[in-house]
Structure formats: structure tokens, C-alpha cells
Amino acid sequence: MMRLLNLAIRNLYRHRRRTALTALLVMTGVLAVLTFTSVSTAFKSAMVGSITDSMLGHMQVHRKGYLASIENLPLHLQIQPKAMQELEAALEETPGIVAWSPRVKLGGMYSDFQQTTSVRVNGVLPAREIATCTGLVDRIQEGSKAPLERGQIWLPDLLARGMKVGVGDTGVVVATNLDGAVNGMTFEVVGILESVTGPGGRDAYIHLEDARELLRMEGSEVSEVAVRVERFDRLATAQDRLAAALAGITNQKGEPALELHDWTKLSPFSSVVRSIDLITLFMQAVLIAVVLVSVLNVMLMAVYERMREIGTMAAIGTRPRMIVGIFLMEGLCLGVLGAAAGIAAAFLVVWVMQMVGVTTSFGRKAELVLDPSIVAGDVLLVAAVVIAAALLASLQPALKAARMDPIEALRHV
Amino acid sequence: MTLIEADNVTKSYRVGELSVPAIRGVSFRVEAASLAAFIGPSGSGKTTLLNMVGCLDRPDGGTLHVLDTDLSGLSRLGRAEFRGNHLGFIFQDFNLLPVLTAYENVEYPLVVVKPVPPAERRERVMSVLESVGIADHAGKYPDQLSGGQKQRIAVARALVTRPRLVLADEPTANLDSATARSIIELMREMRDRYETTFVFSTHDTRIVDAVEVIFELADGAIAETRRQGAAA
Predict the structure, then answer these.
(1) What is the CATH number of the domain that holds B34?
(2) Inter-chain contact A316–B109, Cβ cutoff 8 Å?
(3) A289–chain B nearest CA distance, Å
(4) How much is the ipTM here?
(5) Considering chain B, what is the average pLDDT of its residues?
(6) Is residue B99 part of a domain?
(7) Best residue in B99, B100, B159, B170 to probe A by mutation, most A CBs within 10 Å?
(8) How far apart are CA A140 and CA B170, in angstroms?
(9) Considering only CB atoms, which chain B residues are within 8 Å of A315?
(10) Distance from CA of A379 to the nearest CA of B (A)
(11) Residue B73 lies in a domain
């Protein structure tokens, strides 16, 4: 094996300019894929973090059927007190969950006594909401960042700007309860919230007890429970555990009373993530094509140029298998060289990006700082893909060399 | 002892729709430890015959035994193994592998074709390099050597596996007279030292003068077989 490697390196060195050009092509492909993957992963993670931390939470629990009608904020599909008690127990006992926040959601009208507009309102327990959506407080553009108290409201900036409402102003929220009765409550505006792309990004916030009073709720029903997990990369595990625990919570008919969804089912941004993943896959396919074409080309040239050498090797008794091995090893070396150079270049580029700092904007969120990094899994995947493609591209020229008639090969000029 | 035994061997090639006979019922014998040559004008079939004896090509008809092996019964892989285990080759253009040094070129068959342990390999390679008088150039690459030196390396590569039979196709065609004479003398010495049989395909009268058996070919058949005393 070492002899084959030695022979392959010498043959590649013999045409060092050609070898360098081919390796450069492969390197460029690897660099493009790894850099794109790194930046897109950083973008996804920044976006997902922004969405989940500032409003959605990592997961949400609803009463069965609520999600299908979530745009209407249906009051008749609240999680009932008994189910809520069991849900609380399940949340406390499920490992990997660090915080959860009950919400009462309602659609109503906001009036500043001169103008009236529709508004979606989240009734929350401020401390629990802030523990679950750790980025919520950062969205307060104006006003105090202290937790909401009763009688206070955080308004989304789109609504506040449109109505020219500021911190310290008062207004009325009017809502219809489950029985069809209309009720209103006065609130003091204590914060203006920056809007965030996605559902819930333009909601107002009030205290949970104010929401219940507004809707004249007597029990402890909630519309949804937002859940935060300890490690986002292990969300699926926590979700499976919680889903298993929720399966035991049933309604009077003995059917599951609750439904659990992670952020991907709650935000349209998951389709953007899928698109980014598709583009990454496409780039990997292009990389494979680049490696296949460049290595195939150079190996075919090598076979044609070295026909007499192949004929000599075959004539003096080199077995066809060994001739295949000689050319496969050359292809392998080209792949390894290109992949190694590409990986090194990608680390360098990502390091420079980290030093310089890369920012992007998403929806209304500008100057979002990205933290690109290259993970071992991506490096191994790209290296494996490149090396496999290089070997595949060398196979046909190698077999061609091994099947060559020694007499014909020796006659080649 | 007979090393090569050909009986009514025929070979033809297809050129388009036509079948062109290259060898027409050739029979001959070559004894062990002798020097023999196929001579004749271009197209007479001498290289075709040498290729068949060298297991690079197969006869269409007749029987051809080399070292008591019927070559027509060997598969492609079997022929490769037979060549590696029993035969040595010397080519007109030397055909050394350019990326290997002189030492490595001679070592190649003992690594890839007929492997032997490293210590024995080194001893055998150095021994044969010394025999052909080129040990001082062991570390040089082919493009750093003269034609005569390259052919000496090629002779060493052919002999290093200790074959019973070495086939040489026009081994002196690309050498000047003095070098050609020295290579012929070298092969005679090697025959004497290792009892290796050399079979040539050649136009070179210096080789013709040096061998013991001459098969003169014309139009694919042996026109004359001459045996002569070994000349210096």
C-alpha cells in the first residue's frame, strides 16, 4: 500500500502543474460548500434563535384542534384546568425542559380614545414568559424593561407608530368573551415592542390575570403553553419525551386532550430553513460533479499519456488488479489533496469572517450578527463525498488501463 | 532440456473484413541456457512469434509450450502470472518507469510482481545491479542515464526475478555500436552466470553473430534454422 502511495505521489508530482490545477478546482468546490454551509447554518441558527427566543418558544402545547384554528385565536379551545394540572406535572417531570409559560391569547380592539384598531394580545405571566422567551425583553425599543404588571401593556411598534401612541399613554382593549359579551379594560403603555417576522411577531402583551379578567374567565384555562428546552440541539429528544408524557393526558372521551408542536410547525420560517438545506444539497451535488469531471479528465489523460508504461507493467507480469490500484491511488491522492486544501481554506475564510464580523438582516431585524463556524460533521461529510467522488471518477480510467492489451499499449507512441 | 516447443503454430490478425496471416504453421525448439534469435525483414512475423512465446499473445492454432506449460490454456490473469513468475522482458526503448530510480525500477518486479522479503529484495537488487555494472547509478532516475545505462537497468530488471527465459525485442536498436556490443556481451555473461535462456527478435547482425540458434523468418514461416558456435 505504501508503495502504491509512493508511486501515486511521484506520478502526480511529475505533472505538478496539472495536479495543482485539479486540486485547486476540487479545493474551490470544497471551500464554497463548507463556507456556504457554515454561513447558512449561522444564519439559520440566528434566525431560529431570534424567532424562538423572542416570541414562539421552542415548542408549544395546545388543546387538540387549536393549531388548526390558531389564526382565529379560538376561545372555546382552551386547555381546561384539569388537563393544565396534568400538563404542569408532565412539564416539571420531563428532563431537558428548563422553562414554560402559560398564555391566554385573544383577539380584540385597541383604542386610544381617538382611533381604534384590531390587536392580538398575549396574556402572560411576565417572569415565566421572560424565562421561556429570553429575547422578549430585548425587543422593547422604548419604555421600561421591567416585567409587566397588572394594568400595563406592551404594544407592537407597528401599531404604536400607526396610532402615534407612546410610552405613558393609556388605551383600552376591548374583547368578546366566550359567551359573546363584550368587555373592555384600560391599560397604560409601558413598552413598545420591536416587530419580529412570523406569527406572534406583532402581538401585544398584557398580564395573564388581566387577560382572564377581560375575558371573564373563572377557571385557570390557558390558550397555549410555550416551552423552552435546555439544549436546542436536543430539541427532538425533549419533544419525544414530552409527547410521550402528554399521550397520557386524555379528555372525557379518553382521547388525547393536548397536542405538541415544535417551532418548525409554528413558523413559516421552517420552509426557509428547508430551502437553505436544499441549496446546500444542490451545492454538494455541484461539488461532486466538479470532482468527478476534473478527476476523470486528469486520470484519463494520465492513462493515455502512460500507455507504454502500462504496457510495460502489464508485460512484466503486473496483475490487472494492481494496475487498477495504481490509478485508483492517484485519484484518491488527488481527492485527499483537494479536500484537505479546501478544508484548510474554509477554516481560514471562516476565521477571517469571525474576526471581521458578519451581519445580516432578516425581516425587520437588521444588523443581526452571524457566528459562522465549521462543524466536524460537515468536514467529514464533505471529505467523504469528495474522496468517494474522486475514487469513482478514477475507476473507469483505472479499469481501462487494467484491461489494456499489453501489445497494443507497448506499441503506443 | 527443451525450454520452448512450438508445433505448427499459426496466428492471423483481422484487418477490417480480412484475416491476414502473420504466422503460418511454425514449429521450432529452443533449448535451455541458449541464445536464440528470430530474424527476418519487417512484417516477417518475428515480433508476433516473440509475443506469443512471451505469453503476451495467443496462437490461433498449433501448440506452444514454454517451460512445459501449454500457453494456449492460460487465462488473461494466468498469462500475467506466468510472465511475472517465469519470464523477463527487454524492450527496444528500454521502457523504464520514469518516476522510479534505477534501483526502484529493478526492484519493481520483486515488490509488485513476485514479492520477496525486503532484506532479500535489497540483496538481490544490488547483486544484479553490480552484475550489470550499474550499481553506482542506482539512485539516478532514467532521464539522468544514457541509453546504454538504461538498457543495463532493463537487463537487470529482467533478470532480478531469476527467470528461466528472457525475451528481448530489438534490444540494441536504439544504441550506438560500442554500447550495443557491450549489451550483447552483458547478456551472454548473464546467460553464463544465471543459465538464463535469451530469445531475441532482431535485425542486428551483431546479435545474429552472437547467438547459437537463428530462426530466419519469411512471410510468417521459418525459412531457415541455423545453429552456430557461440561467437564472441
Answers:
(1) 3.40.50.300
(2) yes
(3) 30
(4) 0.88
(5) 88
(6) yes
(7) B99
(8) 93
(9) 54, 56, 83, 89
(10) 33
(11) yes
Residue type, A258: L
* A114-123, A204-213, A364-373: least confident range: A364-373
Domain assignment present for B136: yes
Interval B23-45 mean pLDDT: 90
Model-level pTM greater than 0.90?
A: no
CA pair distance A283, A33, nearest whole angstrom: 6
Distance CA A290, CA A287 (A): 5
Structure confidence at residue A197 (pLDDT): 67
Task: State how far the Cα of B213 lies from the Cα of B221, in Å rounded to an integer.
Answer: 16
A316·B57 Cβ contact <8 A? no
Which domain covers residue B35, as residue numbers?
Answer: 2-227
CB of A11 less than 8 A from some CB of B = yes
| Domain boundaries of chain A, sorted by first residue | 2-50+271-411, 65-256
Which of A95-99, A336-340, B182-186 is predicted with the least confidence, judged by mean pLDDT? B182-186
- Contact (CB, 8 A) for A228 and A58: yes
Q: CB distance B84–A11 less than 8 Å?
A: no
A410: which chain B residues are within 8 Å (Cβ-Cβ)?
Answer: 91, 95
Query: With bands split at pLDDT 50, 70 and 90, how would you rate the model's confidence at A204?
Result: very high
Residue B232 resides in a domain: no
Nearest CB to B112 within list A13, A14, A318:
A318
Nearest of B92, B89, B95 to residue B175 by alpha carbon: B92
Test B56 with A315 for CB contact under 8 angstroms.
Answer: yes
Question: How far is B56 from chain A, CA to nearest CA, in Å?
Answer: 7
| Residue B232 clears pLDDT 50, i.e. is over it | no
CB A204 within 8 A of CB A108: no
Residue B126, C-beta contacts closer than 8 angstroms, at least 6 positions apart? B135, B138
- B95/A312 Cβ within 8 A: yes
State the average pLDDT over residues A272-288. Answer: 86
Task: Evaluate if residue A84 carries a pLDDT over 60.
Answer: yes
The answer to whether B174 contacts chain A (CB < 8 Å) is: no
Identify the DSSP state of B199: E
Please judge whether B97 and A309 are an interchain contact, meaning their C-beta atoms are less than 8 angstroms apart. yes
A139: burial class by Cβ within 10 Å (0-12, 13-18, 19+)? buried
User: Which amino acid, residue B32?
Assistant: A
Q: What is the DSSP string of A102-164?
A: EEEEEEEEEE-SS-EEEEEEEEE-HHHHHHHSTTTGGGEEEE--SPP-TTEEEEEHHHHHHHT
Task: Return d(Cα A291, Cα B103) in angstroms, integer.
Answer: 36
Which positions 259-298 of A are in contact with B (Cβ < 8 Å)?
A: none
User: Which among B83, B93, B100 has the least Cβ separation from residue A315?
Assistant: B83
d(CA A182, CA A175): 6
Range A113-136 average pLDDT: 92
- Among A174-183, A299-308, B176-185, the least confident range: B176-185
Q: Which three cell numbers stand for residue A338?
A: 483537494
- Residue in chain A nearest B107 by alpha carbon: A3
Considering its fold, how many domains does chain B have in total? 1
Q: Angle A319-A324-A326 (CA atoms, 0-180°, nearest 5)?
A: 95
